[in-house]
Amino acid sequence: MANFKIPFNIVNGSVASVADGSIESKAQVVAFAVQTHRGELPLEPTFGITDPSFEPSNIFEARAVVTQFWPEIIIEDFQVGAVGKTGRVDVSIKVSE
Description:
Strand 5 and strand 6 (89-95) form a beta hairpin. The chain is globular and about 40 Å long. The protein is built from two helices and six strands; from the N terminus they run E-E-E-E-H-H-E-E. By secondary structure, it is of the alpha+beta class. The chain has helices at 23-35, 56-69, and strands at residues 2-4, 10-11, 14-15, 17-19, 75-83, 89-95. The mean pLDDT is 81.
């Protein structure tokens, strides 16, 4: 089964998609989970994380959210880089294939 590609776009007149269960699909799921603030989705208020600053405690929270809503996705590694000059933090998340 194919899922819409995020961000949503049209390629050659068709909706871009990714294969369900692929690494790209899993990456989209994890990115959605860690970029959503808890309470942002009215129909699922427990989804998301309370603070996307990636403090060590939030890493565990992000892992818990992904595990709760997508138990088939296993996060193997979660690394947070240093804060850059622009205030950006690079996050690397490795999921099982």
